[in-house]
Amino acid sequence: MNLVIVESPTKQKSIAKILGQDYLVRSTYGHIRDLPTSRLGVNVEDNFSPEYVVLGRAKKIIAELKKILADRPKIYLATDYDREGEAIAWHVTEVLKIKPEQAWRITFHEITPPAIKAALQNPRKLDINLVNAQQARRILDRLVGYRLSPFLWRKVRRGLSAGRVQSVAVRLIVEREKEIAEFVPQDYYQIIGNFVFGQVPGQKIRATLYRLDEEKVEFQQSFNFFATEYKITQTKFTDEKKVAELIKILSTGNYSVSKVEEKPGKRNPPPPYITSQLQQDAARYLHFSPKRTMSIAQQLYEGISLGPQEQVGLITYHRTDSVYVSPLAIESGRRYIAEKFGSQYLSENIRHYRTRVKGAQEAHEAIRPTDVRRDPESIKKYLTPEQFKLYQLIWTRFLASQMASATYQQLIVEITGRDFSGGDFSSAVFRLHGQTLVFAGFRRLWTMAEEEGEKDQAEIVRPAENSRVSAESFLAEKHTTNPPPRYNEASLIKTLEEHGIGRPSTYAPIVSTIILRRYVQLAERKFRPTKLGLLVNDILVKHFNFVVDLQFTARMEKELDEVADGKQPWTRVVRETVQPLEESLSQAKDIARQKVTAEVTTARCPKCGAPLLRKEGRWGEFLACSAYPECRYTARINSSGQPNPAPEMTAEKCPKCGAPLLKRHNWRGRAFLACSAYPDCRYTRSIKDAQDKLS
Fold it and tell me: DSSP per residue over 354-394, as a string?
């Protein structure tokens, strides 16, 4: 009996059901060895050779695997289809001392009977280039972290960390905060005309001033910010008095319809998901964090029980940057569309998408359902609510990618005024631009189009060209130019991806790490740097600029890709980072120790009336009385930057001990109930409705 080794118990269960009793399937439960946690574990003098140690929890697993290795003609290493999976497979062969003639690597995009059986028919040897690329990333991250973190401990405070990619993400957020602070908003006015045409009671058109003579009244400004170009559109009308004078002049003109133009338009469906886009949409539509998204996707990939006899993976591998889809999957999807929605909803030709991500691995597939016939509603009873929502997102996106385009009827109406009393212009053109949906196409299934800003409009009236219209009224709408938006989880991942920083397996850890380290706060789904984040970023920019440089970090990612392709040795990539790091550490060793300064707020201490200070502590920001040590009042600040309300006694009793329950708030500012007998009783529960009565 041959042995199949995987890294996950759920994956083990799914594959064991597929292969039956002809194969023995066992799991490593993740990595079995890694660099040591208590020391550097990299011999810099010996060409960066790593010191790997067996993880404590893995010792029992290794012992069990060794017992069943004997007399196995073939050992199939079925870990995930990426560099991390290749590295786990390599570590397994090294630790268990599996003979080269025994070890075979099998890879697959999905955990289904056809995919697993096809993989077993096409085994290969371990790809040491992929192993080296993962090893180089691990050693790079260890060297940067282990050398920079102690420096930050000495110069700021203990417990801080810096990372090769996480520090770039923090810098993006810090730079955006500076761009927002430096942005100067400007008021401007849009002039709206309400026109009447046709027979009594008449039909109305609401149009916007578009042009005075040949000069457009709107213009666009571009700002070259740190990581992106930011564009804003405004009008040239910024003086309220002059706008009022202009409206008086416009009211004196004679108006007629100078242009009625109708033309068809269409919108093509989006491609199937890659990892970064799935994380972005799950954050945008489902409010899942990237970490949560990847955890749920892992469950869907590794296998879900659909009854006593069926354990199967519902989606393809979820760490991918390729939009390629296998011909069989495309054929299956197109057949389903024709049967379920009708042939008119099927795109005329097979849609092929081009991967736009830098360094994408085209051998991988996009994220798609393993069987489109498993529509979300039909398997809903087997899924958790979160699994259902994410599977539905993946399923609909894949099918939509092969559906017909949505078609629209676009209408442009221009109304020109002349014969004005006064003014330095002879004509004024008002324009109305709208569209109506003619055929939904992919939008019948992909309803996110409305949330993406493509909202349908009611039927637009069509006046006859050259017909006279009456100007009923004019008004000035005041607007203000907005600064660039703060990053949210979706836009941060998108920006990292656009600059070639990070890979499908690293986006979620990047986001969760910078929040965990308290360098940023996620308030109302927007990132803000903390005072600690601002200080650490300033130190890194000033003394270790290459670590937080977009181009340098992107080049490292590209070179890691080249290691994976066998185009350069991994040690060269590591050396290119270590040399400038050591030089920068030497130059910065004598800088003065710095600390996060407290900020005086306008709030007053509820105990003594002294001003409150906003300070940075081990567990994040908090408010403290400026009269310390005479007054020791403190209050936690939630993720929105506001102090949490004081605990309130409720009329409800603790179901465990009978003590009154308190209404408290967590660090996110969300209310929950907790026993007033804490710490003797640790009962808590969330507040799901507003029916809790306060005494």
Answer: ---STT--TTS--B-BS-TTS-GGGGGGGS-HHHHHHHHHH
Q: Give the range among 17-31, 263-277, 504-518, 589-603 with minimum mean pLDDT.
A: 589-603
- Report residue 571 as tokens: 């040690």
Q: Closest Cα to residue 402, out of 272, 267, 281, 315?
A: 272
Q: Which helix (H) or strand (E) holds 205?
A: strand 203-212
CA dist 374 and 388 (Å) reads 12
pLDDT for the residue 665: 81
* DSSP letter assigned to residue 190: E
DSSP code per residue over 283-304: IIII---HHHHHHHHHHHHH-E
C-alpha distances (whole Å) from 274 to each of 159, 169, 396, 398, 494 are: 35, 20, 14, 11, 12
The catalytically annotated residue of 317, 324, 487, 519 is 317
Q: Look up tokens 């040897």; give the residue.
A: 125
What tokens were used for 681? 């009783």
Q: Which of 81, 67, 75 is nearest to 101 (CA)?
A: 75
Task: Kindly report the pTM of this predicted structure.
Answer: 0.85
Closest CA to 163 of 506, 547, 552, 535: 547
> Would residue 202 be called left, alpha or beta, if left means φ above 0 and alpha means ψ between -120 and 50 degrees?
left
Distance between CA 661 and CA 659 in Å, rounded?
6
In the residue annotation, 317 being an active-site residue is answered as yes
CATH number for the region 136-182+485-588 comes to 1.10.460.10
Task: Check for a shared fold between 187-268+406-480 and 275-400.
Answer: no
Whole-angstrom Cα distance, residue 192 to residue 188?
13
Instruction: Tell me the C-alpha to C-alpha distance, in Å, between residue 22 and each of 15, 16, 70, 258, 533.
Output: 12, 9, 16, 79, 55
> Under DSSP, is residue 528 helix (H, G, I), strand (E, B) or coil?
strand
CA gap 597, 151 in Å, rounded:
19
Amino acid at 266: K
- Residue pLDDT, tens place only, 362-377: 458 999 999 999 999 9
What number of other Cβ atoms are within 10 A of residue 261's Cβ?
11
Q: Identify any residues that bridge with 636 across adjacent strands, giving them in sequence order.
A: 622
Please calculate the CA angle 566-568-572 and round it to the nearest 5 degrees. 140
Q: Hey, which CATH number is domain 187-268+406-480, 3.40.50.1820, 3.90.640.10, 1.10.10.410, 2.70.20.10?
A: 2.70.20.10
Q: How confident is the model at residue 692 (pLDDT cuts 50, 70, 90)?
A: very low
How many other CB atoms sit within 10 Å of the CB of residue 524?
A: 11
Contacts for 407 with CB less than 8 Å, ≥ 6 apart: 264, 265, 266, 437, 438, 439, 441
Please identify, in words, the CATH class of the domain defined by 2-126.
alpha beta
Residue closest to 321 by CA, chosen among 293, 358, 368: 358
Domain residue ranges in the chain: 2-126, 136-182+485-588, 187-268+406-480, 275-400, 597-636, 644-695
Q: What is the CATH number of domain 275-400?
A: 1.10.290.10
